[in-house]
Structures are given as structure tokens and as C-alpha cells.
Specification:
About 20% of the residues lie in helices and about 30% in strands. Strands 1, 2, 3, 4, 5, 6, 7, 8, 9 and 10 form a ten-stranded mixed sheet that branches.
């Protein structure tokens, strides 16, 4: 028996999220079908976490147990030949049988992209939220800093969250502004990418954070409101849930010890 760990990128536009759902059409479903087509094994893969419908991934990680002797170097190309064009497996390694891609994940980073130029980018419209009116980016950055640390993020969790513990740690959060797609001499504000790295995330947590920060950028909230929103532990105090298609699971980090090398 072998335990294989793989990295997969996907455009989530057409899918009902990563994790298998009763009505199907998930990234997990297509990966499992591709593995079955390749090896004849009906198995369940384990993802590092779920992503919602419409959310993308540049660094989703999954693992599975297999009895297949196929060499590692052949797995990615063989699976990609059996997958839709918007799902691409980019890496495969063999890991100890004890490895579990969700339980052993130490850090996850999400990226949220806002196109703050006057006009949308037709080539990136599936991965950016277009906001054509002015945003106070400095205020948004100030508000974001208040979210770094270990807190109860109930205010930033979906009301449908089934987690009993809403305490999480955000290790780092920052924004980058790319002006290369902006028109010279215009009032374009560029592409604002927000990166949030944490120990784990609650349902809709990053999207609610971004919806709240957009309100800060619009002047509807102050950066100094963020600590009070956190302390309230009340979803109604935060902003709206930002659109899904601008969110991407950027990376997942693992700390392998000698047992897992």
C-alpha cells in the first residue's frame, strides 16, 4: 500500500466546490473518477480542506492510499489526460502511511483579488471582483492588521457554520497592489490582492473578512471598528460575504518531521 500526496490547481467556476456533495459535480468527484480510470481503484481522496462553489485553488493538496505500482513521475500526466481542462494536477510525492493532508496542515494561505480599475479585465473576470469606484486601500490595510492574531472569529463565520470552536489564528495578512494593468493617467487603482495566512479557516471566513474590508475601503466602516466586530462574536456586526469567484486557495504548508521525511 502506498500513500500518495498531490497538488492540484483548479478553476472552480463550474464546480460545486472541492469536497464531494450529494448533487455531485465537485473537483473531488472528478479526481476520484480519473484515479479510477487510471488504476481501476474506487477510492476516496482526502483534501487539505474544502473550498466553496466558485472558489479556485492554486495550491490545493490531497492524498490517498493506493496499491497501484505506477511510478510517481507518471501520475500527473496520466491523471491530467483524464481530467477536465480546468483541473490540473501539478505535483505528486509518496508520503508515510500516517500522512493526512487535512489533519497535518499547519498553515493555509488564501488570496482575494479585487480589480479596482475603472473597467473589468475580460481575461481575469473569473478570478477578480470588479470594484470600479474608489477604495481607501490604506484604511483597508489598517483594518486588516487588527485581524492578525488568535481570536474567536464568530463574527466572521457563516451563520451555518457547524464548528463548535471558532477560535483560529491568523499568522499574516497583507495587501499587494499591482498597477501594471492600469491605464496611465487614469483614476485606476490597480489589482488589489489580499493574502491571509492562518492555522485554519471557518466557513466563508475570508469572504466575510473581505466584505468587511471593502466596506472600510468605501468609508462605510472605520478600521477602528474591526476590534469591536471581533469582540462582539456576532455575524451581524461584520460586513457582507464577498463574492466567491475572487477567492483562491493559494497554498498549504506542512511541517514534516523526521518520521514524515
Amino acid at each position: 500500500m502506498r500513500n500518495l500526496c498531490m497538488k492540484v490547481n483548479y478553476d472552480g467556476t463550474a464546480y460545486n466546490g472541492f469536497q464531494t456533495q450529494p448533487d455531485g459535480n465537485t473537483v473531488q468527484d472528478f479526481l476520484e473518477e480519473a484515479i479510477y480510470s487510471l488504476t481501476g481503484e474506487k477510492l476516496k481522496i482526502t483534501g487539505s480542506g474544502r473550498t466553496d462553489a466558485g472558489v479556485h485553488a492554486y495550491g490545493q493538496v490531497f492524498n490517498f492510499l493506493t496499491e497501484s505500482p505506477i511510478p510517481l513521475r507518471r501520475w500527473c500526466l496520466a491523471l491530467n489526460a483524464r481530467l477536465p481542462q480546468d483541473i490540473i494536477v501539478t505535483d505528486a510525492i509518496e508520503v508515510p502511511l500516517s500522512f493526512h493532508s487535512r489533519r497535518l496542515a499547519k498553515k493555509k494561505t488564501y488570496r482575494y483579488s479585487i480589480n479596482a480599475n475603472r473597467f473589468p479585465d475580460i481575461f481575469h473576470r473569473r478570478t477578480q471582483f470588479h470594484h470600479p469606484t474608489q477604495l481607501n486601500v490604506a484604511a483597508m490595510e489598517e483594518g486588516l492588521k487588527h485581524l492578525i492574531g488568535t481570536y474567536d472569529y464568530t463574527s466572521f463565520a457563516s451563520r451555518r457554520s457547524q464548528k463548535t470552536d471558532h477560535v483560529r489564528t491568523i499568522f499574516d495578512a497583507h495587501m499587494k497592489v499591482d498597477m501594471s494593468y492600469s491605464r496611465p493617467g487614469s483614476d485606476d487603482q490597480g489589482i488589489i490582492d489580499t493574502y491571509i495566512t492562518g492555522s485554519g479557516f471557518l466557513q466563508h471566513m475570508v469572504r466575510i473578512i473581505m466584505g468587511t474590508l471593502i466596506e472600510v475601503g468605501e468609508g462605510k466602516k472605520s478600521p477602528d471598528d474591526i476590534p469591536g466586530i471581533l469582540a462582539a462574536k456576532d455575524r451581524s456586526k461584520a460586513g457582507p460575504t464577498a463574492v466567491a469567484h475572487a477567492l483562491m486557495l493559494w497554498s498549504v504548508e506542512y511541517h514534516f518531521n523526521s518520521e514524515n521525511d
